[in-house]
Specification:
Four Helix Bundle (Hemerythrin (Met), subunit A); 193 residues; two-stranded antiparallel ribbon; 2% strand
Length: 193
């Protein structure tokens, strides 16, 4: 339970309340601190997976908690960025689309697991996560520095991540439904043959 990858995952879950607290302020310093904290949290996501694979320290707890930690951190950040008292804000409908996609994919994963089907994350979902993380960094920084409008850049990346998110979610559902149908059709073909 206290392996390094699991500790990094617990770190990601543990910093979420601090991230939420920092995002309640609309000024530049707390915004920069929130962005820095989010950066280290997303870096810990990469590190825990790398360490678990490299040293063979993956565990069932880690496999369960890692995606939960990602969803908790990202969902909290998205909700706060839509609710924050500064202008401009992240459109709430984008947050709803992204959160509903995560819930739907989690649900279809659970159905697949009950059927004994393991479907790994697809490449598109990984690109979505990278873009989403970069977008959230810009949106948390919010202000312009060195002639870069971080909010505008972050919102553009979030739009792209939203399109990829919906696309990968639909592909994931189609893949799982196809695997379930194939699994159910195999005994019927064997009985008929």
């Amino acid at each position: 339970m206290l392996s390094t990858p699991n500790l990094l995952t617990f770190f990601r879950i543990g910093v979420t309340p601090l991230l939420i607290y920092l995002l309640t302020f609309g000024s530049p310093v707390p915004s920069a601190c929130a962005a820095l904290l989010f950066f280290f949290a997303t870096l810990s996501d990469y590190l825990d997976g790398h360490i678990a694979r490299s040293y063979g320290t993956s565990s069932m707890l880690g496999k369960f908690l890692d995606p939960v930690a990602d969803k908790v951190l990202v969902t909290a950040a998205l909700i706060m960025l839509a609710a924050i008292a500064r202008q401009p804000r992240v459109p709430a409908w984008i947050v709803v689309v992204l959160v509903v996609r995560e819930i739907a994919v989690t649900g279809v994963r659970a159905i697949a697991a009950v059927e004994g089907i393991v479907v790994g994350a697809d490449e598109l979902g990984k690109y979505k996560m990278v873009l989403q993380s970069a977008a959230l960094e810009g949106l948390m920084i919010h202000y312009s520095y060195l002639h870069v409008d971080f909010f505008a850049a972050g919102l553009f990346l979030l739009w792209v991540a939203t399109v990829l998110s919906v696309w990968s979610g639909v592909r994931y559902h189609v893949m799982v439904i196809g695997a379930i149908r194939a699994q159910h059709a195999a005994p019927k073909r064997a009985a008929a043959g």
